[in-house]
Amino acid sequence: MTTRLGQAPTLVERIVGAHLVVLGRVRDLREVRAADGFDEPRSFALFDVDVDDVLLGRPPRRLVVRVLSAPDRTDKGEESWVVPMDPEVPMLLLLARDVGPDLPDDTYAPVEASVFPVEDGEAVIVAEDALDERTRERLGADDRGRVSLDAFRGLVDEVAKAIEQHRREVEELVPSHGEDVPYPPVLEWPGDETPLHAATPEPGPAGRPSEEDR
Where in this protein does the record put region Disordered (predicted)? Predict the structure, then answer.
């Protein structure tokens, strides 16, 4: 995925970086663990997510989403998460495969915090930093970033088709690894045109090894 210094990736770039785009809802908070690599104590949570519809990819039977805690706690001192994970709100999630020590199989993480609430089952509220002017116009987004689910689905389909077309063009230029590639014969010395063969001892009389092979 293209990364621009000082500018958040666009929605199209986020779709390109996603392995899954799904409509779903949080079912359970599985567990919370300490997150390493931060100056201040941070955590990450593992959520079980039920998938209602698939816009891109093939979700596993049981989808686990890992979400990092926000740098600041709530007014009550509780942890909050960098994306909304409210079990009461249906969401559209752009997800990439996630791996790490002791993580469950089929764990995914949001691409650039791309978890967007869905309103009335027919509109997605896209984060402002994901909507460049071209994408805003393409989707017909309003001032809130509200776009129809059908328009969002159409954009995902367009991106997926473009990626597939690019893959086919690359395959036409680069031979498949499965093709048989003829290798030149191995020569004993440079300039020696006599190919080497596998060493197999020639049997002597009555199938016995020759004197040289004893």
Answer: 170-214
Name the CA radius of gyration of the chain, rounded.
28
Q: Give the number of domains in the chain.
A: 1
Report whether pLDDT(178) > 80: no
Alpha carbon distance 14, 113 (integer Å): 10
Query: Cα separation of 111 and 177, whole Å?
Result: 31
Tell me, yes or no, whether 16 lies in a domain: yes
30 domain-assigned: yes
Residue 198 placed within a domain: no
Q: What is the pLDDT of residues 108-129, one digit of tens each?
A: 999 999 999 999 889 999 999 9
Find, among 45, 128, 29, 127, the residue nearest to 81 by Cα.
45
What is the end-to-end Cα distance of the chain in Å, rounded? 63
- The amino acid occupying position 195 is P
Cβ pair 117, 84 in contact under 8 A: yes
pLDDT in tens, 124-139: 999 999 999 999 999 9
Within a domain: 203:
no
CATH number at residue 57: 2.40.50
Measured CA to CA, the distance from residue 94 to residue 89 in angstroms comes to: 16
Q: What is the pTM of this model?
A: 0.74
Look up the domain containing 65 and give its range.
11-171
Q: Could you tell me the two tokens for 102?
A: 């002791």
